[in-house]
Amino acid sequence: VRARDVHTIPTPRLGGLGMLIGFTVSMLFASRIPFIQGLFAQSQQAWVILAGAIMISLLGMADDLWDLDWMLKLAGQLLISVFVAWGGLQIISLPLGSLVTASPSLSMAITAFFFFFSIKAVNFEDGLDGLSAGLVALGGIALAIYSDIDIAMVGMCVGFLMHNWHPAKLFMGDSGSMLLGYLITCASIVMTGRLDPASIHASIYLPVFMPILLPILVLFLPILDMCLAIVRRLRKGQSPMHPDRMHLHHRMLRIGHSVQGAVLIPWGGAA
């Protein structure tokens, strides 16, 4: 139990390993199901996503076990993001006034930043039992309209919540929170990353780019919390990754909410 933790009883925090195993098994089964196995045969994209998921979870596991320096962890996250972008998962087009096609180097940079931002947002928000898993599951339910990967992600989150609802018997740790941020980003990019600007009329930009907007909307509170934390720490002359007990969920507990209440309110916002 660390000084910044809400829990008072030592609790295992490698639940992310179980989440990764669940996602991996579901992807392997999916590759053999006639209905969707063509997605695995036609493109290496699904396998790149799975490889990235394994790498990001292993990085988080190393941090859970040995408390890596934040610069080392940041470098690892960026390298994995670049690897996935290089493997074909990239944001090629952006709806900026008109549909803009990014150059290869700019596309990779935008994709890597999008991955990093989502991973950090979920990682920062993982401070109460069930909070991150529930938020990502709600986003995954919406994104499942577009992406099969999200069905596996939702199942992984719901299964984990059985062990993580307050009082939690198991924590996901960084290996789980980083995996969730990574997967919700993958699912959004799969649908919109390689759109052809010539084939899309301006009137349908919103529905076409909804998969990119959904994670931002669902993770609005975690993203806001992350931005406030970075500003707060820099104003104090601290590292932006310096841990504290000033996150939104910590403040909700201090003004009298129960742990369950401080989890259900953000869930309602995401829903």
Question: In a few lines, what is going on in this structure?
Answer:
With 271 residues, this protein is an all-alpha fold. The protein is built from twelve helices and two strands. It has helices at residues 15-30, 37-42, 45-66, 70-86, 104-125, 131-143, 149-164, 173-192, 205-218, 220-235, 248-254, 259-270; strands spanning 93-96, 98-101.
Describe this structure in words.
With 271 residues, the chain is mainly alpha-helical. Helices cover 67% and strands 3% of the residues. Strands 1-2 form a two-stranded antiparallel sheet. The longest helix has 22 residues, at 45-66. The relative contact order is 0.16. The mean pLDDT is 84.
Give the end-to-end Cα distance, rounded to a whole number of Å: 31 Å
Shape: globular
Number of helices: 12
Provide the residue-averaged pLDDT: 84
Order of helices and strands: HHHHEEHHHHHHHH
Strand order of the largest sheet: 1-2
**Largest β-sheet summary:** 2 strands, antiparallel
Residues in β-strands, percent? under 5%
